[in-house]
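Weekly puzzle thread! Below is a chain. First person to post its structure in token form gets bragging rights.
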Amino acid sequence: MYIVWGLLLVALLFLGIGIIIAREVRTRHIDIWFRSWRRQDWREAPPENTLRHLMFCFVDHYEPAWSRPSYDVERERVLRWKVEYPRLCAKHRDADGRPPVHTFFYPEEEYRTEHLDDLVDLCREQLGEIEIHLHHDNDTEAGLREKLRRFTKILIDEHDALPVDPVTGQARWAFIHGNWALDNAHPTGFGCGVNNELIILREEGCYADYTLPAAPNPCQTTTINQIYYAKDDPVCPKSHDHGIPVRVGTPPSGDLMIIQGPLGFDMRNRKLGLIPRIENSDIRAVNPPSRQRVDLWVETGIHVKGRPEWIFVKIHTHGTQEVDMPALLGPDMDDTFTYLEEKYNCGKDWKLHYVSARETYNIIKAAEAGLTGDPNQYRDHLIPRPNYAPRARS
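Winning reply:
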């Protein structure tokens, strides 16, 4: 009898664990990308005894008007970055003598001249660059194009914050979609509404998208840990769910390059001591940067096919949320930079490069073109850095 009761208890225990796991998979939408993670098909071993280069890119869904605060709170959020970020970066340098660089993806719908002026000041110190973020819902092609054209013109005319193609005169920029809903990716259609968004972005001057990973959001793609080209189906949503990997010596294809950050599981950090937590390269107070997370990001090994010795780590945050700022501007981030510089910048096995989103794209394109050597020489390979020249204010 005792054996029967014991077996029953064990069975109930396993049933309970199974229910917890099933609920976790369902509520956090792990089923979307688990098969891709299990295949690990993005991996490629570098040649033995090869010097590896780590490109570390920090992108920010930078939203001063998050939660609709007062104007004074918006200003406090931006000014805190203007004061504290240079202090954080003062003692940190990569293999090229460059400080950490933060790419501010600024929302079109939250534009204020004074906020951008403050960020431009950081950019002039080589601590940042500015790109485009957008939240929209139930939009149309015409509405999307109007928003993008208006905002890119403002960033160029008022702040000299975007490069311009010298032949066509078109602005060139990178993109992060608000609410993760790139190309109408949300299952309910929330947060976008435009099925041909990839085509529109490309035609309006976007050279790459940095939205992903989106997990645990249902907008997450099946494809993970890749740098790839997505081909837009103009009548269907989420055309970037799959694509063609960027590869050395292979011409570009599709409509838009998708540059993803690391996504997987942290086996050393388990919920209830059982279920590995998702590692989605998001920096928050509840999941601050750490040496352990750095190793996970690097071990993921995101790269251009055929160039596995060039590793790209793209992490992200929402940098103006007060609860998260200590993790982004304080001791945790300081120690993370220190660890990067100690472990991944010895000059023998690794060289570290702090890169902006634009520089990341340029180095990817250099690898695709078959160029070799030190990635530092390709920071401005195709898309130049804006001048961030001062603008007269009336």
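Puzzle host: Confirmed. Bonus trivia for everyone else. The chain has a mean pLDDT of 93.
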